[in-house]
Design a protein that fits this description.
Protein name: Antibiotic biosynthesis monooxygenase family protein
GO molecular function, one term: monooxygenase activity
Distance between the termini: 20 Å
Shape: globular
Structural class: alpha+beta
Radius of gyration: 14 Å
Largest sheet: 4 strands, antiparallel
Organism: Micromonospora mangrovi
Strand order of the largest sheet: 2-3-1-4
Order of helices and strands: EHHEEHE
CATH topology: Alpha-Beta Plaits
Oligomer: single chain
InterPro entries: ABM_dom, Dimeric_a/b-barrel
Helix content: 25-40%
Keywords: Monooxygenase, Oxidoreductase
CATH architecture: 2-Layer Sandwich
């Protein structure tokens, strides 16, 4: 299982437009083979922060999606952030 998760910042006045511009792509990703979840959302505390989370069955599924993802045009300069890919060998309930 693969998780891609993190955050990045954009100009606060552009943040909601950036999130909205990804809605169509998120919808397509959620229907893609091997996708278990995908979200790009506005942070509730930082007005310039965009949170992202992707959950894939495998590296192959992620790579297949990346080949056809066709992300939206960049609306705002990315000012910083931290997004990491994690390879998960075991999962279970949180408690």
């Amino acid at each position: 299982m693969i998780i891609v998760a993190g955050w990045y910042t954009v100009a606060p006045e552009d943040r909601d437009k950036v999130v909205e511009s990804h809605a169509e792509m998120v919808g397509r990703a959620r229907k893609a083979d091997g996708n278990l979840d995908l979200a790009i959302s506005a942070d509730p505390v930082d007005p310039g922060r965009v949170n992202m989370f992707e959950l894939w069955e495998s590296e192959d599924a992620l790579n297949a999606w990346r080949a056809i993802a066709n992300p939206p045009a960049q609306i705002s300069e990315i000012r910083g952030g931290d997004v990491q890919k994690h390879e998960i060998s075991k999962s279970g309930p949180p408690y």
